[in-house]
Amino acid sequence: MTGAEVLGVLLYAQAPLTAFIPTNRIKGGRLPDGAALPSLLVRVVSLLDRQPLVHPGWFRSDALVSVMVRAESYDDQNKAIRLVRAVPKKAVGTVGTARNVVVLTAGLGPDVIGPGNTFEQTQTFRVAFDAFDADD
After folding, report:
1. Is residue 109 within 8 Å of 62, Cβ to Cβ?
2. 117: left (phi over 0), alpha (psi -120 to 50) or beta
3. Counting beta carbons within 10 angstroms of the beta carbon of residue 89, is it exposed (0 to 12), middle (13 to 18) or buried (19 or more)?
4. Reported pTM
5. How are beta strands 39-47 and 119-132 bridged, if at all?
């Protein structure tokens, strides 16, 4: 798993968030043109080198992951950011195939005007976890 995948699983699991932003509007990579709003874009900003653990094939990963909110109004942007920022409160333990997951907020970006006069803001998270990689 990647840090973005771990955070995506956590976002999908937040009922108050997915009631406001359905899971089909939570994307990785980039938002398609004309995406329904509000939407979230989850991306890895940076990844520290993976550190091998004592058990063969297991690595500790530590990444900065951004969640960009794009909304039609400033109020919707602020509501979405509040819901996104609530994610780390339950993000410790196992998430999917990742173990020993720890998620912390790592900074809130500025309000910006996005494409088509939309409202955007980004919340960055630090996502650390242990993962198995049979190829290493």
Report:
1. no
2. left
3. exposed
4. 0.90
5. unpaired
